Amino acid sequence: MESASPARGQWGSKLAFILASAGSAIGLGNIWGFPTITSANGGAAFVVVYLLAVALIGAPVMLAEFVIGRRTQRNPVGAFRALAPGTAWVVVGGLGVLAGVMILSFYSVIAGWTLAYIIKAASGEFVAGADTGAIFSSVAGSAPVAIGWHFAFMALTVLVVIGGVKNGIERWTKVLMPGLFAILLLLVVRAVTLSGAGPGLEFYLRPDFSRIDGGVILAAIGQAFFSLSLGMGAMITYGSYMTKDDDLETSAGWVVALDTSVALLAGLVIFPTLFHAGLEPGAGGPGMVFVVLTSLLSTIPPEPWGGTIFGVLFFLLLMVAALTSSISLLEVATAWLVDDKGVSRKKASIGLAALAFVIGIPSALANGAVPWLSSLPGIGMDFLSFLFMIFGQYALVVGALLISVFTGWVWGVKNAADEVRSNDGKFSFEKAWSFLIRFLCPVAIVILLGYLLWQQLGG
Ligand code: TRP
C-alpha cells in the first residue's frame, strides 16, 4: 500500500476535509458565475438543467476525483501515472495543471474587484441613488486599479499556499464560510421584499423549457463542473491529503449539497434585485452581479451605515470564499512541481502565481479599460468571458469526460469501489454511481460535444 510522505501534509480531521473541499467549491462560481450564466441562458429552465447536471454528472465525477486522489496520494499528474503507468493518461493530469493556471488568471481579476469593493463600501459609497454602474467602471474600467487589485489578490493566494495544506487552507474555511451563508440569507430576505421582486422570482423559478438547447445544456454542465471545482484535478489533489478514515461518499454528498445551496441562494439575491433595478437579464456581462449587489446593498437602512456595514461584510466574506477557491486552483500545479519536480513549495507557488498574474492582465483590461479586449473582434465577447468559456467550461467538460472514462473503464469501478469502501466497508450508492460514471457521464458529454460541433459546422 502506498503512503503519503510526511512532507505532503494531511487534513487535521474529517470535518476539515469537507470544509476544505467545500471551501474550494464555494466561491465566485456560485455568487458571480451562477447568476451570470443563468441570466445569459434564460433563467429557470437553465436552473433545472443545472440541478440535473449537478446530481447526475457532477456528484459522480466528484466522488471519482476523491477516490483517485486518496488512492494514489498524488497530484493529478502523478495520480494518473501511478494508476496507469506508461500510458497517455498522464496527459489528463497535465491538462488539469494548465487549466488551473489559466482559470486562476481571470479568477484573480474578479476576486480583485471584490477587494476593491470592500474599500468602496467602507468609504460609504453604497447609499440610495448611488451610480452603481459608475462604481463598477471606476474599478474594472481603470487599468491601474484593476491590475493593482488583481496583483493584491494573487499575492494573498500565494501567501496561503506557501503555508501548506494544513496551516494555510484549513484555518480560513472554518469560521468564515458559515458567515457567508448567514449574510446571504439576510440578503435573500432583503431582495425578495423589494418592490417589483415578483418578475425576478418568476424569471428565476418558473421554467420556460422552450429555452433549452444544446448550448444551454453545455453551459449547465460546464457551470456544474466549475462550481464544484471538477474536471482539472483540484479534487484529486484535495483527496490526496485525505486519510483512510475519511468517508469519501459522505464527503462528496456534503460538498455538492453545500455548494448548490449557496448558488441557489445567490440567485434568490440577484434576480429579484435585477428586476427591481429595472435591468435586463442577460445584458450585463461579467459586471452585472457587482452592479446588482451594490444596488441591493444601497437600499439597506440607515444611511450610510446599512450599505457600509453590510457592504464591507459581504465583500469581505466573498473575498475569503474566493480565496479558499483560488488556493485550490494554485495548489494543483504547485503540488505537481513539489511532488514530481522537486521544486520547493515556496518557489513553485510564487513562480506559478507570477505566471497566472501576467496571463491575467488582458482579463483585467477586458471590462472597459481596453476597448478591443472588452469586445473581441469577430467574437463579440470580452476577453475574460472568453477565457472563462474555454478553460472554465470546455476544458473542464473534456477533463471530466476523460476522468469518468478512466475511472469507469480503464482503472475500473471495482477498484474504485474498493477504495470507497476502505474506511468502513460501505458504499451505499455503488450501483447508481457505477452506472453514472461508466455510461451517463461520458455518453451525455460525448453526444453533447458532438452535437455542438455538428451545429458549428453548419449542420
Ligand atoms: N469552484 C470554484 C468556484 O465556484 C472555482 C474553482 C476552484 C475551480 N477550484 C477549481 C473551478 C477547480 C474549476 C476547477 O468559485
Bound molecules: tryptophan
Structural class by helix and strand composition: mainly alpha
CATH third-tier fold name: Hydantoin permease
Report the sheet-strand fraction.
under 5%
Query: What order do the helices and strands follow?
Result: HHHHHHHHHHHHHHHHHH
Helix content range: over 70%
pLDDT averaged over residues: 93
Q: What sort of overall outline do the alpha carbons produce when their principal axes are compared?
A: globular
How many separate helices? 18
C-alpha termini separation: 52 Å
Question: Low-confidence parts lasting 5 or more residues at pLDDT below 50?
Answer: 1-6
Q: Under the CATH scheme, which architecture would be assigned? A: Orthogonal Bundle
Q: What's the total number of strands?
A: 0
Q: How is the main sheet built?
A: none
* Number of individual domains: 1
Summarize the entry for a quick read.
This protein is 76% helix and 0% strand.
Structure overview:
With 459 residues, this protein is mainly α. The chain has one domain: Hydantoin permease. It has 18 helices and no strands. The chain has helices at residues 14-25, 28-40, 44-72, 76-83, 90-122, 132-140, 143-162, 164-192, 197-205, 214-227, 234-239, 248-276, 288-297, 305-341, 345-364, 371-374, 383-421, 430-456. The chain binds tryptophan. The site of tryptophan (TRP) has 16 residues, from helix 1, helix 2, helix 10 and helix 14.
